[in-house]
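Late entry, evening session. Most of the bench is empty. Finally got around to the prediction I had been postponing all week. Sequence below, unchanged from the version circulated by S.P.
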Amino acid sequence: VLVLSGKGGVGKSTFSALLAHGLAADETKQVALLDIDICGPSIPKMMGLEGEQVHQSGSGWSPVYVEENLGVMSVGFLLSSPDDAVIWRGPKKNGLIKQFLRDVDWGEVDYLIVDTPPGTSDEHLSIVQYLSATHIDGAVIVTTPQEVSLQDVRKEINFCRKVKLPIIGVVENMSGFVCPKCKNESQIFPPTTGGAEKMCQNLNVSLLGKVPLDPQIGKSCDRGQSFLAEAPESPATLSYRNIIQRIQEYCEQRDLQEEKII
């Protein structure tokens, strides 16, 4: 499952991290989280793995494990300091992505979640090309409600269609904010053109759900904790759980269809 968005700052890494935590809650499933945001790797921090190193074994690089059934790989583990800048041209980035797919000993995994950088360029083309033989189940596209974000997200949907990448659906992040004191809802990012819902109708794409703003999400990410476990009653957690369930159902349907074809 690729997590995409044409726009930066809409919450792709947060969504990828929480999707991984949500899927790994089922202990019978093996989940892998691959961070290919090479210039801005935030997954190590969000998963509580900052400062961890990658170990080389006879079978390749070993992922860094959060739980027994949740492994993570990121360029962040290869840097000497979290503040180091990665100043690379496209071919070197592509080489590292290929290495992450070829040389990491993930073992048998049920879900591989790929957190991507913003845009529709080198890293996106590389991951789609390298994984084409494995049949990518699809992409989850993350947006925020305002038109400035939707404008770039439409480009990402167009990219998916051009490279024949199935779209699982769109998640509208930061969708409204309920004040914890007065309980009134405010639109921090007003959906001036109808938000993700209208865009999905126009482009014939599924809307997987809307996640409201919750300051606790940012706090949990900074501490490297799972927001789903820390705030189980939050409306944002309920929304995440519904979205994760829909993604699981979609992937199971795809598996059944592939079994029938075989």
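Two things to note before I forget:
The longest strand covers residues 167-172.
The mean pLDDT is 94.
Will write this up properly tomorrow.
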